Amino acid sequence: MKFALIAHPDKYKVGPPLQAVMQWCRENKATCFASKNVVDAAGINKPDSSLLRITGDDNEAVGSADVLLAVGGDGTMLYSAQLIRGREMPVLGINCGRLGFMANIHQDRIDESLTAVKKGEYRVDNRSMLEASVNSGETWYALNEFLFTKKDTTSLLNLTARYDDQLINRYWADGLLVASPTGSTAYNLSTGGPIVMPGTPVMVLTPINPHTLTTRPLVLPSGKSLTIRIDENPEHVLCSNDGRIMQIDADPIEIRVKKSKHSVQLVQLKEQNYFDTLRNKLMWGRDTRET
C-alpha cells in the first residue's frame, strides 16, 4: 500500500504522529510519499528509500499514492481536498489540532486506523464540494464554504443574491457565506447558520451581521446556481474559498455557486458516525445540569 503524507509542520506538532505512521509502515511493508518539508518535520535524517520516497511537492506525493494521510487539523483536511480534487482517493485525517471535526482520528489510534485501511475495514464518507464560477472567467472550489466579506473598511457591503435567476434578497451586511453541508459546522455555525447532515443535496446562504435583523440563513437545493453580485469597489471586498483568498479581477464581482461534480472521500472507521462527532466535538445537546 502507498500513502501520501500531508502535514503543516509550521502550524501543528506533527513529529510524533508522523513517526508513528512511519513505524507502522515499516512493520507492514507499506511505502510513504512525502515532500522534504514533511520528512524534516518527522525528524528523519536518513530515510530508507524502500519505506519513504521524498517528492518535490505535495502534488507529486498525492499522484504517487493510493491513500492520503492528512496529519494536522481541519485546515490540513481542507488543503488536502484541493490537492485530490478530480482524484478518487480516500483521505484519512489524523488530528493534531484542537477540534478535529474532519481530521477525527486521535493519535493513539494511528496503528488501529492504518490497519483498518489496509484490510479495507472502513466506510467512505463522500463529501461534495461547491464550485464557484466568476464573471472574470475563473472557477474556484470549496469543501467548506465561500466567503464574501468586507476588507479594509468598517462600512457594510451591498450584496444581491439570486437563486436560479430569481431574486432572493438584497443584503446590507458585513458579508455573505455560502456553505456546504460539510461546512455547516464551521464558520456557518458560528454566524448562526444551521447544521446540515453531510450528503444532503443543499447549500446554506448565511448573512454575516446583517443590518436587518429579520434577515435569516436560507437552505437551498445545491443542484441549481446561487448568484452573488457585489456592488462595491472590489478593493473593499474579500472573497475566499475555505479560508484562502480568491484573486478576482472583476467590477462588479458576480459569482455563481453550485454543487461541484468533485467530492472528497473521507475514511470513516466502522464505529464512527456523524452524530457521535457532533456530540463529542461540539458538545451538541449536552446539558451541563446533568451529573
Termini separation (Å)? 47 Å
β-strand amount: 35-45%
Give me the secondary-structure category. alpha/beta
Cα gyration radius (Å): 20 Å
Task: Describe the structure concisely for a colleague.
Helix content is 20%, strand content 38%.
What does this structure look like?
- The chain has 291 residues and is an alpha/beta fold.
- It has 2 domains: 2-120, Rossmann fold; 129-261, Probable inorganic polyphosphate/atp-NAD kinase, domain 2 (Tumour Suppressor Smad4, Sandwich), CATH 2.60.200.30.
- Helix content is 20%, strand content 38%.
- It contains 7 helices and 17 strands.
- It has helices at residues 15-28, 36-41, 58-63, 74-83, 110-119, 187-190, 274-282; strands at residues 2-7, 31-35, 52-55, 67-72, 90-95, 122-134, 139-142, 145-150, 157-163, 166-173, 175-179, 202-208, 218-221, 226-230, 237-241, 244-245, 253-269.
- The strands form 2 sheets. Strands 1, 2, 3, 4, 5, 6, 7, 9, 10, 14 and 17 form an 11-stranded mixed β-sheet that branches.
- The mean pLDDT is 91.
